[in-house]
């Protein structure tokens, strides 16, 4: 990404959660601490099953008296329904504003040109009435502008940003090892902590209870994390969802996301896994790399 490029992420959806109980409502469900979210700070979080398996991932931004939920648009309706299940008697209003608001991404250097901006993941500022935040998952993903669709192009013109192909943005995300596309293919197939959400600032181990907290904490405290979601780099052939991945005759993982930005759940601590190796699946040769931000 350069300073002039902007990526209009039309494949992102926006939910708005408002009401007297909105903060407590989110705090009881999400894997992160909602108290981290303020006018000048946003966070990444997930919604898990009671067993700690992945369901949804999203970014939470303070907006007026409530919260924007920035999620993959293909999951917006399902997330809306899931949140509604937990609503019960809470004084909470959940709205799908995906047709009114849009997410635009641009690089970190451009973000740091804004007055009051800080080189801190999740740092959030206002451009007029709209939120701009440095991605809370990883600063190298750049910044995100959450803006009303009617104001988008005028604002981009004033910011001297040029609309660029979103494939460039998602290619960067894949190179960084951060999945954002086809996340529905991960649902119920791995634990949230196996998605690297701790390293992506999406899990708070000091907060109180939330859905899936028990198993998440147990995996962490008992050092049971033996598999991780890692990016696949295809050398030749093709891969399909659920293809097994081998080092010689030894299975070391399984393909979970098989689109143009593929990811696999890998036994990364296994003696048969070495990221310098070339691996194989049924119809492909591939490489798998552990991102530099994973310790």
TrEMBL record:
UniProt keyword terms in alphabetical order: Methyltransferase, Transferase, Transit peptide
Any GO MF annotation of the entry: methyltransferase activity
InterPro entries the record matches: TrmE/GcvT-like, YgfZ/GCV_T_CS, YgfZ/GcvT
Gene Ontology BP annotations: iron-sulfur cluster assembly; methylation
Enzyme Commission number(s) from the entry: 2.1.2.10
SUPFAM superfamilies cross-referenced by the UniProt entry: Folate-binding domain
Name listed for the protein in its UniProt record: GcvT-like Aminomethyltransferase protein
């Amino acid at each position: 990404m350069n300073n002039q490029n902007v990526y209009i992420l039309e494949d992102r959806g926006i939910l708005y959660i408002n009401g007297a109980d909105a903060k407590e409502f989110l705090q009881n469900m999400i894997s992160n601490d909602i108290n981290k979210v303020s006018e000048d700070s946003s966070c990444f979080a997930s919604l898990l099953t009671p067993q700690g398996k992945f369901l949804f991932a999203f970014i939470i931004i303070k907006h007026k008296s409530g919260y924007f939920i920035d999620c993959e648009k293909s999951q917006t309706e399902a997330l809306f329904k899931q949140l509604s299940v937990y609503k019960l008697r809470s004084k909470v209003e959940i709205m799908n504003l995906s047709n009114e608001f849009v997410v635009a991404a641009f690089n970190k250097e451009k973000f740091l040109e804004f007055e009051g901006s800080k080189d801190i993941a999740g740092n959030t500022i206002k451009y007029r009435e709209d939120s701009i935040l440095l991605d809370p998952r990883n600063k190298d993903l750049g910044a995100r502008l959450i803006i009303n669709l009617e104001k988008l192009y005028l604002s981009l013109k004033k910011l001297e940003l040029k609309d660029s192909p979103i494939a460039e943005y998602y290619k960067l995300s894949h190179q960084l090892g951060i999945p954002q596309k086809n996340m529905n293919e991960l649902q119920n197939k791995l634990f949230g902590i196996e998605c690297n959400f701790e390293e992506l600032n999406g899990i708070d181990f000091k907060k109180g209870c939330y859905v899936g907290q028990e198993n998440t904490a147990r995996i962490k405290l008992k050092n049971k994390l033996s598999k991780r979601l890692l990016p696949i780099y295809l050398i030749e052939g093709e891969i399909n969802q659920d293809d097994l991945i081998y080092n010689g005759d030894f299975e070391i993982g399984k393909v979970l996301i098989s689109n143009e930005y593929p990811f696999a759940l890998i036994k990364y601590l296994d003696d048969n896994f070495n990221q310098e190796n070339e691996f194989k699946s049924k119809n492909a040769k591939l490489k798998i790399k552990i991102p530099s931000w994973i310790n």
